[in-house]
Design goal:
2 copies of one chain form a homodimer. The first copy, chain A, is built from 12 helices and 12 strands. With 341 residues, chain A is an alpha/beta fold. In chain A, β8, α7 and β9 form a beta-alpha-beta unit. Chain A starts with a strand and ends with a helix. Chains A and B meet through α8, α9 and α10 of A and α8, α9 and α10 of B.
Chain lengths: 341, 341
């Protein structure tokens, strides 16, 4: 099993990417990694660790794609970048089963779509990040920002199929409970897009559709996968993140406002640290770009070594799985059903 | 100054509505209230308080509109409901300047649009709830769920105008900082709807447009008004609410898991209560239905007496203001500018 890790483009690159890669080797005996980026810098980082040198290869790529690069230009103008090279390896080297990157999302979508292509029948790739639930599980949101234009009921059904197969493959959730993000729980709620999608999802028997969900219930633990358009999925995921971060920061400030609170907080130090870690969604892996012919895991731009390492675990579980075949077959079923209507 | 209060349809109706009404009298010497709903039940509640009986009138309305009533049917089939009667008073009694209701949103929008009408030039009414910011202020989100269909760049600009005039009038914010909810901060981000709206908002000089905002920054205190379509505004507001509630519940559960934490939490009891109150957006007033020719304030379905009373304060500040004239004039300006293009 071979995975390519794009070692540049993240806030903590290349340090976190290299360290995360080395850590991942320890957990998977048959894993080999190809690191792309400035070779000298990567070697400098690698020299800090003891690892089996046979299992890590470095492919030199001197350029870096940043958030300022227009996605459309990235592939054309930065052919020698760590991201383009990682994707090229994924395309050309049949032994490489996945790419992990912490670089710019827009460029990654563009390069992946052009160089790797989509699974047959999939209209648009979709991101599916994972968040923690209050019952100790995880919940995926698909799409959270890949397909901002051209959202139709059909693409939302594709998101449901992609997310379901992903959770089955990478998290062994046998029958993921799928809900549609909406402004109310009743079947007639929302715009035409939501109403038509609700109808499709109710009629298909490929998955376990449990109805509409209001955003306030995201963390309840009642759902495994939330189907959404990219825009509102993006709003949802980032507002959970923002609210948790801001609220925990406020609690910290308030603690410092009174000696009594400071004393109390001393006893609870470990708990507060755990709450922060609990809500830090980097701990639950990257946002997988679903729908491409090969596995691409996008870590948060600010990914730590731990976060990168978890992304490699995700990629490992998906590469060489039958996930994409299952997606293609579920989408073919859906298309057949539509034609029958 | 006379305000009609719909006393039924909320989870804590009529108790909370009547109590909130009585409390409001104390704060505004020139305020008179008309309470609509089952007269016997309202009189029962009123009998619990000492108040100036000259300042409260009860208008009997035996029916109740619930969330199960289709909005389209509510006005036709439930003419004797507390909501329809309150809106009818607003329309027919020129002394009544506003309605406060904790009843079903959909029905309220429908009845208000048909019976009260829109301000000249406004295409669709919009809800604008308020949330607390981490710098001790408030931030409005407009629209949060009134206009789910037919969203255009023009309706989003209308939302910006409505929200701006509301914050100026009811909260004396001189020049509200307006941001557009988007998937990224750069001007080119988002779909065509967002890009065109961004362009409009940048060109108009009626307000203080500060650019795009990602949902994670909502509570930062950097913005006074967030312009959004109803669907993503709804997702945003409810996910902030849900995340705060779930996180505080989790902290509570975790405290009970260890004696050490229980001891610490004892010292911090007051602080935790304050955090909960801080994040409870009922404390910041109702969601005003902007764009109608008269003032309509929609309290949360679960409004407490305090929440109802705050809604009456909001209505009081808006009724008899020049808010609607300012909206009409700003929209006329916008339309003129569009025609010039």
């Amino acid at each position: 099993m071979k995975i390519a890790v794009d070692c540049f483009g993240g806030d903590k690159s290349p340090g976190a990417n290299v360290e995360g890669a080395v850590w991942a080797l320890d957990r998977h005996d048959d894993l080999e990694l190809v690191l792309t980026g400035d070779e000298a810098k990567i070697r400098d980082e690698l020299s800090l660790y003891n690892y089996d040198t046979d299992r890590i290869t470095v492919v030199h790529a001197p350029e870096i794609i940043t958030g300022d690069d227009k996605p459309i230009n990235a592939i054309r103008l930065k052919k020698e970048s760590s991201m383009v090279k990682a994707i090229r390896l994924l395309r050309e080297d049949k032994d490489i089963g996945a790419v992990v990157s912490t670089g710019a999302s827009g460029a990654l979508i563009g390069i992946a779509t052009i160089r790797i292509g989509r699974i047959e029948g999939v209209r648009r790739p979709a991101f599916c990040p994972l968040l923690p639930t209050m019952t100790g599980g995880i919940v995926g949101v698909c799409d959270s920002g890949a397909n901002v234009e051209a959202v139709t009921p059909e693409t939302l059904v594709h998101n449901a199929i992609l997310g379901t197969e992903y959770l089955k493959t990478a998290y062994a959730i046998e029958s993921p409970r799928v809900a549609l993000l909406n402004v109310g729980t009743e079947a007639h709620k929302g715009d035409e897009l939501r109403q038509k999608t609700y109808q499709y999802l109710s009629e298909l028997d490929n998955f376990n559709f449990v109805g509409n969900m209001e955003s306030r219930d995201l963390l309840s633990g009642k759902y495994d996968l939330i189907v959404s358009d990219a825009f509102s999925g993006n709003v949802l995921v980032k507002s959970v993140e923002g609210t948790a971060v801001e609220l925990l920061k406020k609690i910290k400030r308030d603690i410092y406002s009174k000696n009594l609170y400071k004393m109390g907080a001393l006893l609870m130090k470990k708990m507060f640290k755990e709450e922060k870690e609990f809500m830090n969604y980097q701990n639950y892996g990257g946002s997988v770009l679903l729908g491409c012919e090969k596995v691409i895991v996008k870590g948060h731009g600010s990914s730590s070594s731990t976060a990168v390492s978890i992304c490699i675990d995700q990629a490992y579980r998906m590469a060489n799985s039958r996930m994409n075949e299952n997606v293609a077959s579920a989408i073919a079923d859906f298309n057949r059903q539509q034609n029958l209507e």
